[in-house]
Amino acid sequence: QLQLVESGGGSVQAGGSLRLSCAASEYTYSVYAMSWFRQAPGKEREGVATILPGEGSAFYADSVKGRFTISRDDAENTVYLQMNSLKPEDTAMYYCAASVGVGCGLYRRWYGGRWYACWGQGTQVTVSS
């Protein structure tokens, strides 16, 4: 089963930047769509950004367009989320997810026309004003 591990979270001031990383146990990023989600206390887990296999087309939630950039390094089996101009409302637990289609856990979320069921443990991002 695919294993995902996030890193790079932390506490920053508004306007600052962070770069999140998601390392996969298998070479799958060139095959499956990968997304970043986030979940703030008391809210639903929401999709933030998606990168597709192949050419690597990227899509973003309106709330982060122009500020966040998703990318991948297939050789290192890693997906990144560069977060700039951070705002307090970006504070959340950030999760990496894969749209594998078969396998992984029972918790599933629909985002960008795909089901996501493979998740990392999350990395906390806290933005203070």
What does this structure look like?
0% of the residues lie in helices and 49% in strands. With 129 residues, it is mainly β. The mean pLDDT is 94. The strands form three sheets. Strands 2, 4, 5, 6, 9, 12 and 13 form a seven-stranded mixed β-sheet that branches. It contains no helices and 13 strands.
- Count all strands and give the number: 13
How large, in whole angstroms, is the Cα Rg?
Answer: 14 Å
Sequence of secondary-structure elements? EEEEEEEEEEEEE
Question: If helices are DSSP runs of H or I spanning 4 or more residues, what is the number of helices?
Answer: 0
Strand content: over 45%
For the terminal residues, how far apart are their CA atoms?
40 Å
* Average pLDDT figure: 94
Oligomer category = single chain
Structural class by secondary-structure content? mainly beta
Summarize the structure.
The protein has strands at residues 4-7, 10-13, 18-24, 34-39, 46-51, 58-60, 68-73, 78-83, 92-98, 109-111, 114-116, 118-119, 123-128.
